[in-house]
Amino acid sequence: MNRSLSLIGMGEDGFDGLSAGARTLIAEADVIVGSGRLLGLLPPLSAALYNWPSPFDPMVDRIRDWVDKRVVILATGDPMNYGVGALLAPRLKHDLKIIPAPSAFSLAAARMGWSLPDVEMISLHGRNISLIEPVIAPGVKILALSEGDETVRAVAQHLVERDYGESAITVLEHMGGPLERCASCKASEMPQQRFADLSTIAVECTAGPGAVLLSRVPGLPDDLYVHDGQLTKREVRAITLSALSPVANALLWDVGAGCGSISIEWIRAVRSARAIAFESDEQRSRMISENARRLGAPDITIITGKAPEVLANQPTPDAVFLGGAMSNDAVFDAAWRALRSGGRFVANAVTLEGEAALCRRHRAHGGEILRIDTAHVVALGTKRALRPRLAVLQWQARKP
Q: How far is residue 391's CA from residue 374's CA, in Å, rounded to a whole number?
């Protein structure tokens, strides 16, 4: 018998909602693996049924060993859209045939009459609720996968706190099945009813008069951060992030992270970007955690400890930012060695010692040096004047 391994997406309409080809694969299967909920939607079959264990790694190994069986794996909706397919496909890619059903996003967009490419799509299922923060903006439409009632109410609370309480929330439950239900309200007027698990939340953002616009473009207002003075100021931060050039899946090392502003805005700029914030002071590490939660970068990794020792055995960075300690040769050497070939290194200095060290790095490794001078208007009696801030010398280099 030839091996057959299929990953089939199934909706709330169960077996009857599948294509003829998918139904044939299931009917002819020797083994079917899936959640108890999906297995319960199948008609009587001769196949052996296996519920996914937790953790499910042993079952994946077992699937590999079924080389002479016809195996079907069931998943909810589109397995490649925040589904199990993303975990299984790399491990079974040579054998796996994938047949998706409509995703929750597709079904919700159809119910709402929204153009899917014009919608922000995120998953809050098993994830930190603050991931919704970067996509909240006037007029934006959001579709979010929800874990259930608690997620729905947390989204509404976030909207109210951001002065988006007039935003329309629609909760779509059991789409495509006999229990399908749709409930709509304003974020500020959540009803008492309990919402189902595994629902989808649709949000039409409406900003109130006090709503602060938090762009994903680097350079958030300084007063949004909890800090003790160790903060890369807004204009310098924007220039620094531009030099670091966040891109998809790239990892940043933020060495001497302070309150975490560089790491946080790196992650906000590109959804799949990652960052490790290294900070020696425990109080500042707690500030980074709080700022990351409030500004929608909860997945930032925070490591408290003294450089260069704390840098050892960490994942290879695609970019490094050194906001201080430029005159510390051991810290610089460890960070430069760790940076991947072609990676970007950016360092800022405000002291004479730091500037001297930065010029040495430039002489040794090339790159560019930029002086950043900014000034802000202050009152002088009845008149106004521009008061300069400390100049920042910035070195930008690409590792050969």
A: 7
pLDDT of residue 2: 59
* Stated pTM of the model: 0.88
Q: Which fold has domain 4-101?
A: Cobalt-precorrin-4 Transmethylase; domain 1 (3.40.1010)
Q: What backbone phi and psi angles, to 5 degrees, belong to 99?
A: -125, 100
Taking only Cα atoms into account, the Rg of the chain, rounded to an integer number of angstroms, comes to 26
Does domain 105-204 fall under CATH 3.30.950.10? My reply is yes
Q: What is the mean pLDDT of residues 342-361?
A: 95
- Mean residue pLDDT of the chain comes to 93
Distance CA 192, CA 171 (A): 13
pLDDT in tens, 140-183: 999 999 988 999 999 999 999 999 999 999 999 999 989 999 99
Where, residue-wise, is CATH 3.40.1010.10 in the chain?
4-101
The answer regarding whether domain 222-398 maps to CATH 3.40.50.150 reads yes
Q: Can you give the chain as a three-state secondary structure string?
A: CCCEEEEEEECCCHHHHCCHHHHHHHHCCCEEEECHHHHCCCCCCCCEEEECCCCCHHHHHHHHHCCCCEEEEEEECCCCCCCCHHHHHHHHCCCEEEECCCCHHHHHHHHHCCCHHHCEEEECCCCCHHHHHHHCCCCCEEEEECCCHHHHHHHHHHHHHCCCCCCEEEEEECCCCCCCEEEEEEHHHCCCCCCCCCCEEEEECCCCCCCCCCCCCCCCCHHHCCCCCCCCCHHHHHHHHHHHCCCCCCEEEEECCCCCHHHHHHHHHCCCCEEEEEECCHHHHHHHHHHHHHCCCCCCEEEECCCCHHHCCCCCCCEEEECCCCCCHHHHHHHHHHCCCCCEEEEEECCHHHHHHHHHHHHHHCCEEEEECCEEEEEECCEEEEEECCCEEEEEEECC
pLDDT digits (tens, 9 = 90+) for 190-241: 998 899 888 999 999 999 999 998 999 999 999 999 999 889 999 999 999 9
Q: Which structure tokens are listed for 214? A: 């938090």
Q: Is the pLDDT of residue 67 over 90?
A: no
